[in-house]
Amino acid sequence: MKKGFSFIDRTFERLFSDTNQKKIERITLWLSLFGFMVHLALIYVKKAALFSLPFSDQLLMDPISAIYTPFSIILVYEIYLLIVFLPRSFTTAVSKQFEIISLIIIRRIFGDIPKVELDVNWFEYADNRALIYDLSGILILYFLIYLFNRYHTKIEKRPMDQRLKRFVSSKRAVSLILLPVLVFTSVHAFYGWAQTLLFSPTSQVIHLPDINAIFYNEFFTILILADVFILLLSFQYTERYSQLIRNTGFIICTILIRLSFATSGLVNILLILSSVLFGLAILRIYQAIEKVEKPIY
Q1: Quick one: how far is CA 227 from the chain centroid?
Q2: Of 119, 158, 224, 261, which alpha carbon lies 20 to 30 A from 98's?
Q3: pLDDT (tens digit per residue) in 115-140
Q4: Reduced to 3 states, what is the DSSP secondary structure of residue 62?
Q5: Distance (Å, rounded) from C-alpha 198 to C-alpha 26?
Q6: Residue ranges per domain, the chain?
């Protein structure tokens, strides 16, 4: 068993080493710049009427929409970091999830700005209201994430005994499994979207699936399953009620984020905010319990 855990630890540290993380960070930077320039070029080529598209092309209507592409690439890097941080703690992982959903909202804002109508009553137009919901939501979300991370840093770290080391190794094994699964899922989701985009009949206008939800529905579903699996593994290493409830509460946060992708407008924002508020409440209650209970390990 020790050899197995040692192999897992070595593989994890080799695959997610600081050197590899820096390489991926540089690749993300260059891909973001390249994607931004390509998207911008397509927008101006379309404005010059050099080609026509058989599908809804709202992301090619305004130069501001070009920011959508680098944000999409940065989100992929953030998901990679989430997999890296997953073995550290439930709290660190859920904090990264909150950051990812906040970036998704910001990306959506850049995609929706060209839809705004200035010549109508602002609140009578659905896309105008959606922009207000997103702008207000991201401000509140940003503040809640700040509070969550602030209280997270106040949690006292425990010494790494053998039981805790085995648990961390188990979570590293989950991360190693999660990486290829998410790579396959992302490629499959993108392929399905591109196939609809490029190979559908040109005789009619194609209404593509919501690009903001592509891949992320599957991603958060897989993440929920991974979190539940880690929660079950934790039963072997701790019997502390407060910690089990905290970890279960954080899984509920992920479920609320997943549910938000099935909604739009104000309900979408409220579900996301309720996820972070619930996580913040769980964290504060856990910290209060920690002050009066002596940790078992």
Answers
A1: 14
A2: 158
A3: 777 777 777 778 888 888 999 999 99
A4: coil
A5: 30
A6: 15-292
